[in-house]
Amino acid sequence: MSELVLFIVSLLVAGMVAGGLYVVTQDISGGILTKGQDVAESLRTNFEIINDPENIPVSGSSYVFYIRNIGKDSFSFDPNSVVVMIDGSMIPPANLTFDPSGVLAPYEVGKIYVPTAFISSGYHKITVVIETGKRKSLVFEVG
Predict the structure, then answer these.
(1) What value does the CA radius of gyration of the chain take, rounded to a whole number of Å?
(2) pLDDT of residue 92
(3) How far is CA 106 from CA 46, 62, 71, 74, 92, in A?
(4) Res. 107 pLDDT band, cuts 50 70 90
(5) Cα 102–chain centre separation
(6) Which helix (H) or strand (E) holds 28?
(7) Contact yes or no for 85/107 (Cβ under 8 A)
(8) Measured between alpha carbons, how far is 107 from 71 in angstroms, rounded to an integer?
(9) For 82, which of 2, 36, 100, 110 is 20 to 30 Å away at the CA?
(10) What is the pTM of this model?
(11) What is the per-residue pLDDT for 111?
(12) pLDDT computed for residue 28 by the predictor
């Protein structure tokens, strides 16, 4: 009789261990799937700042920074969805102008106009962050 009880208890323990391993395996599998989808989204949405760092063009009273969508998906391209920072300080969205304003399609080049009042002469770093969190930086010189 005691052997039967030990056998049943060992079956219960083995079942609990197998169930625990199943739950852990499913959790890891779900995490890998989610991470893979995030990486795929990150690869589909990408951009670059394509200015010459030693020759930033001026248009009126603004410096012009060129942004090229090198991803396969469009992304929002306006002051409400793109953050622009110069040397770590955010430029207020009301002071930025985007061309085209709205959406930047794949392989399209857009322009961000930053008022010259925010950039003194010397070396600076511009960082552009789009709505997906993807960020790019460029160190440039203003003469």
Answers:
(1) 26
(2) 96
(3) 9, 25, 6, 6, 26
(4) very high
(5) 18
(6) helix 2-44
(7) no
(8) 7
(9) 36
(10) 0.74
(11) 98
(12) 92
